[in-house]
Structure formats: structure tokens, C-alpha cells
Design goal:
disordered N terminus; single chain; 249 residues; 8 helices; 0% strand
Length: 249
């Protein structure tokens, strides 16, 4: 099999069994949400959007962007290209989950609070973070030199990561329509056991989907850099890509 054929075969393995298990778990959590979880007394059926909106937010902020920032700090210290790939992959997957957050938030807010977008601190800060991550990904496409691209994007990723704790605290620092935390707070979750269980299962399924998508996106990055290495990158870069590809298989 030729080099191109090998890349095609490798790309076909990226979305493997882990991805489909994660998709099945997400589907099962949605079924539990809609069919087996009671409606909230005041908000009614609209509240069930919580079990998509909040797990997506937790996954984006506390898994994807935290990993992006940590990998970026380590990259600036160790200069390991694998850490740069991890940060970029986490950022791209996190952008997808943040988009889910920004779509489901207004869908929940309209029937409950009577407005699609209130412009409060948490919503605005989350949108700002989404724009920063988008700028991060655009920056990576605009800089050709791998070293400069890694350093510039790492700095921007760390700055974006610093926004995450601010977003968490916005409901305490500002007057906002966004409800107070129900699950992620110092005291016990203020939700019945059935709702807490549904949320826990939903978050676990979203976290598994994040891992599957992160693995696939990292694999695509390896394949892309391998293609660049074949058309003229340095031997050291080619060896680094080959090592990463062996670790993926």
C-alpha cells in the first residue's frame, strides 16, 4: 500500500469503537433525560435542556480548555510538538462543545425567562471565550513556522484558560439571569436524586465523547503533519511525527 493509501486507512481508524460507544452513551443520556427524568416544578419541560447545556459547558470549560491551557504551559516549558498538538486538538473540540452551550442557552432561556439573550456576564464572557478560541485556531492556520505557531498559540491559549475561572464566578460577581450553580458548588447539589443522576450520566457521556473526539482530532493532526513532513519539513520534525503516529496506533 502506498503512502497516500496508508493515510486514508489510518484516517478511517480515527473514529473507531470509542467514538461510537460515546455516541451511544450520549444518545442513552438524552433518552433518559426526555423519557425518565421528571420535569422541574417551575420551568417545566424546557428545563430538560439543562442536561445538554450544562454537561456541554462543563466539558468545554473544565476538560477541553483546561487541557488546552495546561498543555500550552507544558509546551512553552518542554517544546514538545506533541503537547502543541494536544492543545490545538483540545481547543478545536472545545469550540464544538462551546457552540452547543451558546445554542442551547438561548433555547432554554426563551421559554423560561422570556428572552433569547440577556447579555448578562456569563453569556457574554462565554461568547468572548468562544471568539478567543476561534482566533486561536485562525492564528494556527496563519503561521507557517511550527515553532512560532506553537509559541504564539500557546500564549493565547493560556490567556483563554485564565478566562475559565472568571466565567465560573460571574454568577456570584454580577447580577444575572443565569441561575446559580446547581451541581458544581461547595455544598451538596440542590437537585433531586433523579435529576442529579441524569446530569451525572449526561456529563460522563459528554466527557467520553470529548475523549473520543480529542483522540480523533489528534490523529488528524498527526496525519496532516506527516503529509507536511513528506513534502519538505526537517528530518527532526519527520521523526517527531512518526513517533506520534506510532503512539496513536
Amino acid at each position: 500500500m502506498g503512502v497516500s493509501g496508508g493515510r486514508i486507512a489510518a484516517s478511517g481508524r480515527l473514529f473507531g469503537w470509542l467514538f461510537w460507544i460515546a455516541v451511544g452513551c450520549v444518545a442513552a443520556s438524552v433518552v433518559r433525560d426526555l423519557a425518565f427524568t421528571p420535569d422541574e416544578a417551575l420551568q417545566g419541560p424546557a428545563q430538560k435542556i439543562l442536561y445538554i447545556h450544562a454537561p456541554a459547558a462543563f466539558t468545554a470549560l473544565y476538560l477541553a480548555f483546561a487541557l488546552m491551557a495546561i498543555a500550552s504551559v507544558l509546551y512553552l516549558w518542554l517544546h514538545d510538538p506533541k503537547l502543541d498538538r494536544v492543545a490545538a486538538s483540545a481547543a478545536e473540540v472545545g469550540l464544538v462543545f462551546t457552540t452547543v452551550v451558546l445554542v442551547t442557552g438561548p433555547l432554554w432561556a426563551r421559554p423560561v425567562w422570556g428572552t433569547w439573550w440577556s447579555g448578562d456576564a456569563r453569556l457574554t464572557a462565554t461568547l468572548f471565550l468562544w471568539l478567543i478560541i476561534l482566533a486561536y485556531l485562525i492564528l494556527r492556520q496563519a503561521v507557517d513556522d511550527p515553532g512560532l505557531r506553537g509559541r504564539y498559540s500557546a500564549v493565547l491559549a493560556i490567556l483563554a484558560g485564565l478566562l475559565v475561572p472568571f466565567i465560573h464566578l460571574t454568577v456570584y460577581l454580577f447580577r444575572t439571569l443565569h441561575p446559580q450553580p446547581i451541581f458544581l458548588k461547595p455544598s451538596a447539589p440542590s437537585a433531586p436524586r433523579e435529576m442529579a443522576t441524569t446530569f451525572g450520566l449526561a456529563f460522563a457521556s459528554f466527557a467520553l465523547l470529548f475523549v473520543a473526539l480529542l483522540r480523533a482530532r489528534y490523529g488528524l493532526a498527526v496525519l496532516s503533519e506527516r503529509a507536511e513532513a513528506e513534502v519538505g519539513s526537517t528530518p527532526a520534525r519527520a521523526r517527531s511525527v512518526a513517533e506520534a503516529e506510532r503512539g496513536l496506533s
